[in-house]
């Protein structure tokens, strides 16, 4: 698919991997088939797409940008998402190795790790993000897809030519609150010290 798209578009300068899904389930209840499906989608598919893109970029000899959308949970775990967490941790590590190996070809490899984002997949819009209060997120609301896209656009730009192997959290400060607190605190009492 990567080759077909690159041929149709006349080349490949930027590749963004943005696939992911999970089934919330306690670790002890995850069937091996579900584990494999989740890892295949979130890690194997990303590997295959990014490798195909990198091969084209190396062959073209003009550098490029590879960006993987991971998750804040690539940095901190979350109960009930064992397969997803394992895959996103793997994807984050893969990006770092790609940055080391592809740098000599002028290719940067970076990750963007969104927190809770209001998207169509979650049945919410950017306007919903402005109307939704999240006590456990320092900025007090979910993120917007446009905010994640802006970071991706920066990493794809010439201005980010010296950024590689980085992992950009786009989470309103959620990671600063710990793995469970960010979207699960019920009130703002933590703000009072």
Poorly predicted parts: none
The main β sheet shows up as: 4 strands, parallel
Structural class: alpha/beta
- The figure for the number of domains is 1
Describe the structure.
- The chain has 193 residues and is an alpha/beta fold.
- The chain has one domain (2-173): NAD(P)-binding Rossmann-like Domain (Rossmann fold), CATH 3.40.50.
- The protein is 39% helix and 13% strand.
- It has 5 helices and 6 strands, in the order αβαβαββαβαβ.
- It has helices at 2-9, 32-60, 82-102, 126-131, 145-156; strands spanning 14-17, 64-69, 107-114, 117-118, 143-144, 167-170.
- It has a 4-stranded parallel beta sheet, with helices on both faces. A two-stranded parallel ribbon has the order 4-5.
- Strand 2 (64-69), helix 3 and strand 3 (107-114) form a beta-alpha-beta unit.
- Helix 2 (32-60) packs parallel to helix 3 (82-102).
- The termini are far apart.
